[in-house]
Amino acid sequence: MNATYLSSLSKEDLKRFVDSFDTVLTDCDGVLWVENNAIEGSPEVLKKLRELGKKVFYVTNNSTKDRKDYVSKCLKLNYQATEEEIVSTAYLVANYLKSINFRKKAFLIGSAGFAKELDLAGVKYVGFGPDPMPEGLTTLGSLEGGLESLLEPDVGAVLLGFDPHFSYPKMVKAASYLSDPNCLYIVTNTDERFPVSSRLIYPGTGSMVAAISACAARDPLVVGKPNPYVAEAVSKIHPLDPKRTLMIGDRANSDVLLGANCGFRTLLVLTGVTSLDDVDKWKKSSDPEDKKLIPDFYLNKLGDFLQLL
Ligand SMILES: [Mg+2]
């Protein structure tokens, strides 16, 4: 955790670094692409890493797509990919529910990709899609049929991923289901914002999680980064030696922290959320939690790795 500039290593040290890992976990948004455009040079680096015999997994907190969609996006942007290599949070939640033999209904706050993963896992759910405040009402207290009419029977889990239709009625329902302590509360990730470079702030899933957690007065199970659950899921299909695993990411509090939590090497790229100023701030901080956010290495962009390989 020294935040060494990878390009500053000597040839010998670079070779030692490249030989030191055989598995690469890479984040997607802000590392491989921004929205629908590949970041220059990133596809070539992944191709080269594969040629060197490295196993690659795409580890993303984005819950809006299912694994098939991700494979299509990868191929379109010149990244080789199979479904098995995609570790996305909607899939992780669906897989988790399947693994515990969940038989009740779930209340889903999420988007189409999340719903599709639940379908594939055979998990029944309600709540998907727009759920605006009924016209003319300012509170749900005056709802015809009473508040109870809002709730479905047999809901055993509240699931939360990014939902463009997040609304007050959804908050009411989620918090009401969660008032039953036996109701599971599982969320894909806690990233507060999307990594976009403009003056507009786009709230991410984490902002929605904060709202639901506040009104339900409960903490969720988070399956996405930085929770080591992600790494456990990967190790079920491919044995992971933490010391020989490199995590690449653009966001310290999810990607680098996952690395710190799992004992991986970490490479921060500066094409997304975290800046070098952030890293300098954490270097000066005396808070041990801040120290966990400092990557082992950094590069301005992943593409710069190519000439070092
Ligand atoms: Mg990212």
From TrEMBL:
Its cofactor is Mg(2+). One of its GO terms (molecular function) is phosphatase activity. Divalent metal ions. Mg(2+) is the most effective. Keywords: Hydrolase, Magnesium, Metal-binding. Pfam families: Hydrolase_6, Hydrolase_like. One of its GO terms (cellular component) is cytoplasm. It comes from the Eukaryota. Mg(2+) binds at residues 27, 29, 250. The active site is at residues 27, 29. Coiled coil: none annotated. Substrate binds at residue 225. Belongs to the HAD-like hydrolase superfamily. This is Phosphoglycolate phosphatase.
